[in-house]
């Protein structure tokens, strides 16, 4: 199974120690998204649902509680912040978001979902290389550690959704920016081999429920068999 986008666009800065989730991609049509979750498009806005690779501080397409698809900047910034929005949170712990002062109001009334085609994680493997390039390990053959890039998806759901919280923020120039952070949870048995955390993932019906109710139960890890991964 191959990725539907050119994943070579990913930079090496994400190969080690990457925050989770720090890179995902979107590759869908509005019609395809509409079949999973009904929405209207913000007046005057042209969504880019096939934008491909998405990284922190990028503008993303998000659907708010009123089912309006609109642009948000990835990196949650509280309204009272006096700092540069670029330093803000890309991930928010789901276990504590409803009670933490920074997120309580957003959890009650500024919930959103982000349409997703897949997200990226990395592992490392030993590969054999010419002797002048490698290091000898137990096998006695020259090897080196090489990062492996994987795309993770929610089986049977394309697109699927990241639940998120958003906040409006005035940047140092006085411009209002709508910022958003993804909710994360403990990994399930499948994703644990990639990272100690995972983004919460929802199908269309669960995304509807999240927007309308905000039930914390929706923010749990999915069953083992719900996730799949392939080499990017």
Q: How many separate structural domains?
A: 1
How would you classify the helix and strand content by structural class?
mainly beta
**How many strands appear in the DSSP assignment?**
14
Counting DSSP H or I runs of 4 or more residues, the number of helices is 4
C-alpha Rg (nearest Å):
19 Å
Q: What is the helix fraction of residues, given as a range? A: 10-25%
Average pLDDT works out at 86
What is the quaternary state of this protein? single chain
Question: Would you kindly provide a written description of the structure presented here, covering whatever features stand out?
Answer:
The protein has four helices and 14 strands. The chain is mainly beta. The chain has a single domain (about 5-120, about 150-230), classed as Alpha-Beta Complex (hypothetical protein yedk fold), CATH 3.90.1680. The strands form two sheets. Strands 1, 3, 8, 9, 10 and 14 form a six-stranded antiparallel sheet that branches. The protein has a five-stranded mixed beta barrel with strand order 4-5-12-11-7. The longest helix is centred in the last third of the chain and has 10 residues, at about 205-215. It starts with about 25 loop residues before the first strand and ends with a strand. About 35% of the residues are buried. Mean pLDDT is about 85; it is low at about 1-20.
